[in-house]
Amino acid sequence: MAQLISDRRDVDFVLHEQFGLVDHDKFAEFNKKTVDLIVSEARNLAIKEILPTQKPGDEEGCVLENGVVKVPECFKRAWELYKEGEWLAMTDDPEVGGQGMPKMVGIAASEYLVGANSAFMLYSAMTHGAAKLVEAFGTEEQKALYMKKMFSGEWGGTMLLTEPEAGSDVGALTTSATLNDDGTYSITGSKIFISAGEHDLCENIIHPVLARIEGSPEGTKGISLFLVPKYLVNEDGSLGDFNNVVCTGIEEKMGIHGNATCTLSLGEKGKSIGTLLGEINKGMPEMFKMMNEARAFVGLQGFGVATASYMYSLDYARTRIQGRHMVKGREPGAKSVPIIQHPDVRRQLLNMKAMVDGMRSLLYLNGKCSDLMVTAESDEEREKYSDLVEVLTPIVKGYVTDKALEVCSHGIQIYGGYGYIKEFPVEQLMRDSRIFMIYEGTNGIQAMDLLGRKLSMKKGRSFGYFIEWMEKTIQESKSVEGIENITASVESAKEKFVSTAKILGDRARSADVMNAFSFAHPFLEVTGDVTMAWMLLWRAMVAAPKLVKKAGSLESSVVAEKAGKNKDVAFYAGQIRTAEFFINTLLPSALAKMDAIVAGDRAVEEMPEASFGSK
Amino acid sequence: MAQLISDRRDVDFVLHEQFGLVDHDKFAEFNKKTVDLIVSEARNLAIKEILPTQKPGDEEGCVLENGVVKVPECFKRAWELYKEGEWLAMTDDPEVGGQGMPKMVGIAASEYLVGANSAFMLYSAMTHGAAKLVEAFGTEEQKALYMKKMFSGEWGGTMLLTEPEAGSDVGALTTSATLNDDGTYSITGSKIFISAGEHDLCENIIHPVLARIEGSPEGTKGISLFLVPKYLVNEDGSLGDFNNVVCTGIEEKMGIHGNATCTLSLGEKGKSIGTLLGEINKGMPEMFKMMNEARAFVGLQGFGVATASYMYSLDYARTRIQGRHMVKGREPGAKSVPIIQHPDVRRQLLNMKAMVDGMRSLLYLNGKCSDLMVTAESDEEREKYSDLVEVLTPIVKGYVTDKALEVCSHGIQIYGGYGYIKEFPVEQLMRDSRIFMIYEGTNGIQAMDLLGRKLSMKKGRSFGYFIEWMEKTIQESKSVEGIENITASVESAKEKFVSTAKILGDRARSADVMNAFSFAHPFLEVTGDVTMAWMLLWRAMVAAPKLVKKAGSLESSVVAEKAGKNKDVAFYAGQIRTAEFFINTLLPSALAKMDAIVAGDRAVEEMPEASFGSK
């Protein structure tokens, strides 16, 4: 079995040719050479150590015995190596034990790690998110006790949010906190769907818990955040008593079997002691500060399985011999050919590639925005990149994970019957991918976030930055030979998108809000489609002049002939073709969807509830 | 857990209001009363006896021990009751042991049975298909030995087609047949992916096997069909020796765990004796005669899981309380509401309903065409309905199963995190559904069949019948009050579709064939979309006058008010709203896709193979 995750040439292209590394003192040590080494190291770790845990992790899953959750045995060595390499905090401040890498570089490294085993990497992401909460809101004492051990991966972390009656509606939670005489709190309640909630990878697990202090207001305004360790930690950092965070069950899921999804009970079999993290009743805004990172990670998980599924399918399509060529196969004595020569297989591969390439650019760009926030010379600039991250987040999480499932489904289809059996990796990738559309805010929530918050944020200024950047690429593309048609198509799509956004945004703030939100998800879809078109045009814009240089011509027969011999010609030609495919064949449907959004059919809002059906 | 599969009101609507039963002597005993009883009986069996096997079937799966495959234990009782009820041959000729039901009625009954457990019903479908082969091509002796026992379900049946190197390319198969002195053949070879290939539901299994007689031509022209029983059958019908059809493995799959997907070895551990079925070297055309039925069944499987997923999601959306109403929730003291009140949940439900309703109509119509073939007064009429089945088959199989996966994915999304865990039924439905896009000819093959064969069949006459029927509905709709706008939209969509079909069909017969077939699947998609629009318009056309009668008005506030109290008002209003939703919101994307097909971008054909990527 080939071990495939990502197209390294494409990773390098996005890092160095499409976007370029951020040039700033702050990231001085991360020059091209170092960055390439980091990506190579991540790739090595991913392929040699993490990928071998993918299938066993799926088969063994996690086992709960007497309150103890055992992860798949092979995860332990992988975790040790992951810790040793200091990957968990690769993009964090050296002061907290991090490596200080640019986020964009961290994403490049992570795409290999996540693509190798998204369930395994969820232990890391949960820990990282929890550590960031401590970094952002912890007292000096909390930081000293927990933070570095979390950033190193010695201790794990989670996020205890969901309850049986409080999923998307967090404000309905009932977990309670009671102040003790010593300033700590006793936490009581039950939490469900806790990723990495209990496991034996780490000697301790630090749970940030959302709970309501007795007497606090109802709803989200009365929620506070607490740190509740699995084992209490003594002042010298040694472990004390078990803190009665009891795992009462783990879910049997469609996929990501390697990650334990736990039901945790607090304060029911003895006291569970927590300390307040941040301010009383500010739990929701505090948690929201970490949300962009968490959602970007889920987008990365979607992308990771998508790129892996594409790489496997491509390899299979090149090597699987089946059926004759549609034209050449008519000649007498024609032999069967690799299935990549069949039009429908090529169509599916190109569909996957367009999505995977576009996702990669989008995710790296989102990472680069975070880097540019750090290196910004002015508050305005910093705010601009922060706003861009706000706008990009629902696309990165919602659109990417929707499309990841589609890509993974194509992957199975290319394998045919072999795609449906567990012997080949694409089957698991699709099962794993289905959760990414749900957790960290369902994609319906992402769509509401985009339409209801991001579109109108700061009176539309944030969204304006997003459109301006798109326009900049379009303007630059206009002077590039060979991409005139797709540039014009993206420009008119952008214009239609801007007017659609205006109309729907106005509707969302009018009395017609129910109609507007019945189109929230279609609006997320077209936003994503236009963003993909933008990313792919940008790639083509970078590639076209280089292709002229390498192939001497953009003429398709010349390019085709040289592509087989020259890797650069093949690569750059692929950028243009992929952009053409997406923009000419898929983007038109998005334009029609915009028309439908503007038309605003009322069936969704007006359908009587009884009309949906009976048993 | 509610036990939900199908909306009985909708089943009755399609049978009696949209299409009507075939009125003919041949089906005289199947009047409305009898048909309703049959559907009720199927529903009872499905819900009481088959549905309880769904989850255990998934969990236990099939087990291979020493060449013997054990099905999930609970399947045995269900199979006995299924046999007792004579369901397997419900639509077959009484002469062969069938009940002689109209196909359309059989489909209505089957939608419950398949929706209850698609893996279980695959044992029945494989047996039925094999029995039909014996009926169509068997000698009197073969019929006497095998046929009735297969139609009764006493013995099972299969179809041994696929080999490791011969999947979509059947002509590449290497299983061989050698003539014995007594006129039988010794069959040697290995077959894979054999659904219901070996199991302990029946005392014998009759395998139709595709093999090449020594000396026959290469490719599909040299393939013959043989009957190879698991146990040889003596002249008196008693079982003889084991015939060395050895199960060497069963696949571990994403879903349909209850059906054994077997690797079978013939003639390797002793002789496997078969008798020729039909004529030498005519195996492929013989098998093709059964293909429409097999493909219709797979479409029915897709539809079955889709309707079940919809019914569960609808029930969940009506009972799950989470979050406040977007508008009314702003009032002080507003309580949380059932999630069916949230716009994005409604959108998804309506999307599911539009698909499920449209699929039901399409499948029943396809069944009715078969009935009208039987009752046709002239050869012309018979040929017309036969042609319609030919044209509808790739849509029924390809489009329906593509959309079934989408419907099942929506089902999971509506459940949120609960959708991803095995505790709720929608998780399994999605896993099960993924195979339907692959077996019985991948959907890529269906798309090629539609574009390459069905569009040009009989110089376009067959396709013409399909368009004419669509036109008839549109013309009739024009005089119906309240559906003027959607009628006009479907008419213009139909016109654009006809011109797209003409352009793409011409291209497929030109030197530009590779380009044409790179749009084969998009063409299947738009064909399906237009067909759905047709089906939903037809429903609205039937419903609108009845709604006026029941509600006194088509005005939405009047209808909404009465829908809560009057089931008919709710039902008929739902038909119109669902048609509006699909036609106004989803159909526009199909029109844009047609434009893209006509534009004929060349990226898929011209993308250099090396440009798809490297490792």
Structure explained in plain terms:
2 copies of one chain form a homodimer. Chain A starts with 7 loop residues before the first helix and ends in a 9-residue tail after the last helix. Chain A has 4 domains: 8-151, Butyryl-Coa Dehydrogenase, subunit A, domain 1 (Orthogonal Bundle), CATH 1.10.540; 156-288, Butyryl-CoA Dehydrogenase, subunit A, domain 2 (Beta Barrel), CATH 2.40.110; 303-325 and 335-441, Butyryl-CoA Dehydrogenase, subunit A, domain 3 (Up-down Bundle); 444-607. The first copy, chain A, is built from 20 helices and 14 strands. The longest helix of chain A has 37 residues, at 379-415. A 5-stranded mixed barrel of chain A has the order 4-5-12-7-6. Chain A has a two-stranded antiparallel ribbon with strand order 1-2. A two-stranded antiparallel sheet of chain A has the order 8-9. In chain A, helix 6 packs antiparallel against helix 9, helix 10 (343-375) packs across helix 19 and helix 18 packs across helix 19 (567-599). The first copy, chain A, is an alpha+beta fold and 615 residues long. Chains A and B meet through helix 1, helix 9, strand 13, helix 10 and helix 11 of A and helix 1, helix 8, strand 13, helix 9 and helix 10 of B. Chains A, B: It comes from Desulfamplus magnetovallimortis. Chains A, B: It catalyses: 3-(methylsulfanyl)propanoyl-CoA + oxidized [electron-transfer flavoprotein] + H(+) = 3-(methylsulfanyl)acryloyl-CoA + reduced [electron-transfer flavoprotein]. Chains A, B: One of its GO terms (molecular function) is oxidoreductase activity, acting on the CH-CH group of donors. Chains A, B: Its cofactor is FAD.
